[in-house]
What does this fold into?
Amino acid sequence: MKHHSDSKAAALKAAFPHTIPVMLGYIFLGTAFGILLGSKGYSFVWAIVMSFGIYAGSMQFVSIGILTSPFDLASAVLLTLSVNARHIFYGLSMIEKFKKMGRMKPYMIFSLTDETYSLLCSVEAPEGVDERRFYFFISLMNQFYWVLGSAIGGIAGSVFQFDSTGIDFAMTALFVVIFVEQWEKNKNHLPAMTGVISGIVCILIFGKGKFIIPAMLVIFLILSFFRRYMEDSAGKKNPAGADKKTEGHHGSYND
Amino acid sequence: MVLTTTESMIIILAIAMGTFLTRLIPFILFPANKKTPEFVDYLGSVLPFAVMGMLVVYCLKGMDFLDYPYGIAEAAAVLFVVAIHKWKHNTLLSIGGGTVLYMFLVQAVFK
It folds into this structure.
């Protein structure tokens, strides 16, 4: 491609607005992580290294617990696999989308967090913008916010005191917004309802700490067995953009 | 620090590799050069809707309906986000407004 820098700048400019909600959430949550890790005697360098190399919000909070317990590699690995098992289901929705990502693909896979997944599911590159770079910049900027937040938290630590209680609601609000957008976009609400109801039922059965994996399995089974009720009757088979074959859609989730 | 620097580095490396593995598995099972099974395509198209519903539930799992304040702050903030988003469709307004409202409720109203 001849116009490397032009095309890059255009993709970056198109991608940035979509990442603003994640920016807010990640900087706050990353800061909280950095502060917490710092309070256990690990300097901000550790927070940056972990946010750079692990890059998984909930797992990094769990890691603090592991780092403050006696050395046990096996249970650290086991805990990692179980906390992050939901990622396997995310990847399934991205197989088609990532096929065309070329040398950016390994990074796209590495950086597939809950929030990045939710953005990649719901946004489409505007007309004339390089789709691959557009997705790549979304992923890259999201990790940048997360690392930045961790650094801020690690460095600032106890210097600034302000009551941030409840600030993590930004993440909840982001998911609610995407849920509303998807609800309006997809005429068939059964898949969305399946997720909500499976989640609630599994919390009641398995408790708040262990419901994710059972809930994902229940969702998987219901979606598999009741397929004919799940597909969009309007003939839009790929409403989430999971298997987008045409390019240049102008839709986006915050227009 | 409970662990030594070396022990800490080993643990972090293991967690990083384990995390990447969970993200990599689907792409190993269904490589790009092969046609993805049609069933996997179908799953990929409906899973985002279900997962997002489950993630909303996941975020709200801390709600406690039995004790004061009975999850009122969460419920109010979520309803606010849904309503204002349906009305304005402005992501930043919905998320910013909802977060400010929630912080105000938990810090000043339901202490």
